[in-house]
Amino acid sequence: MTNFTSKTLTKEEKRRFDRQFRLPGWNQEILKQSSVLIAGIGGLGVEIAKNLAMVGVGHLILVDLDTIEYSNLNRQILFIGAPEGASKAKIAAKKLREMNPFIRIDAFDCPLQDVPPRIYNDVDMYIAGLDSIEARSELNRRAVHNKKFLIDAGTAVYNGHAYVVSPFTNACLECDPLTERAQDQLGACTLVGKPRRPAHCILKGQLRFEQKHGRPANILHSNEVQDVVSYANKLLKEHFPQEKSFSVNQVIQIIDNHEPTVITINCVMASLQSQEAVKILHHLHTPMHKNRLGNIQLNYLIYNGLTGKFYEIEKPRNPKCEMCGKDRTPLFRIKVKRKFRLSQLIERFSQDKKYPIDTEFPPMIFRIDSSELGEIFLDQTISEAGIKDCETVLVTGFDDGSQIYLTLKLEG
Ligand SMILES: [Zn+2]
């Protein structure tokens, strides 16, 4: 019960968190010094952020580039009363400060890629409440590169899953070849080329609409849906003349990218994520020889909300994983002054780490920690190139076609 006599907790904090202090193994001081990045402030993220703010995690970083829609209000409690179109991250931060004025909350309404790399380096762990494969994959890369825990979850209809990635201990999100297949299928379906399956005609109709209008067709506008239906049926007649033409409902089912979802399932999964987070924070800040709070659940957890049952699946690492497998691109962390020239940096690295430079294809540096990808020219200094503290870059052009990741800790 050390929290009652703690010198770092204020009188108000002691009164507020009184009941938590009585939990076996609990340490409020640990939570107060902890920081967590929450990616995605939607159905899951709102609940996770609320839970972690309420238990008193000292610093929360909220990231979401989306804005509030009216249809969010049946489950995303932090947005009640906020105007449609306002930033989810900013409104959530404002509400959470009201709920717990003793913690620090930073909000970023930008893509995950544009959050300063220093933050990914400094926080204790990441939690995902994301709905896209791309964003998960981005956060997974940061988790593996920075060796941080990542707690992922997702919901679909009445089911949910939750999964803690402990890099290099259990499978990361890229270890699963299923993800690769899903991406491949999406990639294979483009506007050009013959549709391989009848359903592709609808996807092509949607893609055509998107190219024409800069956004997908809105299923609430019948003329927009009709546009997709007509084009899809035209393609269907051309390539699959034996098939019956698509109805409006069939088209809506395929082009609607909003998963059915309900607050009860979101809350179950978000609470599981939050509880694992509390344990992980205790583990990270408790010395090895001392008793740690509980065990981290490292299996993939599935919840069936209709039967009320949980299922656990062990997720062994994939030795061939491009992110965490044995043939992955190696990552090095180096300290370097901002006025250092990039060409010098590569030369020094090559000598220090015994990575001979390829004379035929000399080194090139690529930006990966930003939504603006691309080459960085070597004749600049680090500050001229606009490289940020703790930014990771990809460097190619060493012997045998090898490449490396470099994380640059800037000084001076
Ligand atoms: Zn992996």
SSE arrangement:
Elements: H1 11-16, H2 18-21, H3 28-32, E1 35-39, H4 43-55, E2 59-63, H5 88-99, E3 104-108, H6 117-122, E4 125-128, H7 133-146, E5 149-156, E6 159-165, H8 177-188, H9 198-213, H10 222-239, H11 248-255, H12 263-284, E7 300-304, E8 309-313, E9 331-337, H13 342-352, E10 364-367, E11 374-376, E12 391-398, E13 402-411
Parallel strand pairs: 1-2, 1-4, 2-3, 4-5, 9-13
Antiparallel strand pairs: 5-6, 6-7, 7-8, 10-11, 10-12, 12-13
Bound molecules: zinc ion.
Short description:
With 412 residues, the chain is of the alpha/beta class. Helix content is 36%, strand content 18%. The chain has 13 helices and 13 strands.
State the CATH superfamily name of the largest domain: NAD(P)-binding Rossmann-like Domain
In sequence order, what are the helices and strands, one letter per element? HHHEHEHEHEHEEHHHHHEEEHEEEE
The number of distinct structural domains comes to 3
Number of helices: 13
Share of helical residues: 25-40%
CATH architecture term of the largest domain: 3-Layer(aba) Sandwich
Main pleated sheet: 8 strands, mixed
Q: Give the strand tally.
A: 13
3D structure, described in words:
With 412 residues, the protein is an alpha/beta fold. The chain has three domains: 2-157 and 260-297, Rossmann fold; 184-255; 331-411, Ubiquitin-like 2 activating enzyme e1b. Chain:  B, domain 3 (Structural Genomics Hypothetical 15.5 Kd Protein In mrcA-pckA Intergenic Region, Chain A), CATH 3.10.290. 36% of the residues lie in helices and 18% in strands. The protein contains 13 helices and 13 strands. The protein has helices at residues 11-16, 18-21, 28-32, 43-55, 88-99, 117-122, 133-146, 177-188, 198-213, 222-239, 248-255, 263-284, 342-352; strands at residues 35-39, 59-63, 104-108, 125-128, 149-156, 159-165, 300-304, 309-313, 331-337, 364-367, 374-376, 391-398, 402-411. The strands form two sheets. It has an eight-stranded mixed beta sheet, with helices on both faces. A five-stranded mixed beta sheet has the order 9-13-12-10-11, with helices on one face. Helix 4 packs parallel to helix 5 (88-99), helix 4 crosses helix 12 and helix 9 (198-213) packs across helix 10 (222-239). The longest helix is centred in the middle third of the chain and has 22 residues, at 263-284. It is globular, with a radius of gyration of 24 Å. The two termini are 44 Å apart. Residues 183-188 have low confidence and may be disordered. The site of zinc ion (ZN) has 9 residues, from loops. Residues 171-172, 174-175, 317-318, 321, 323-324 line the site of zinc ion (ZN).
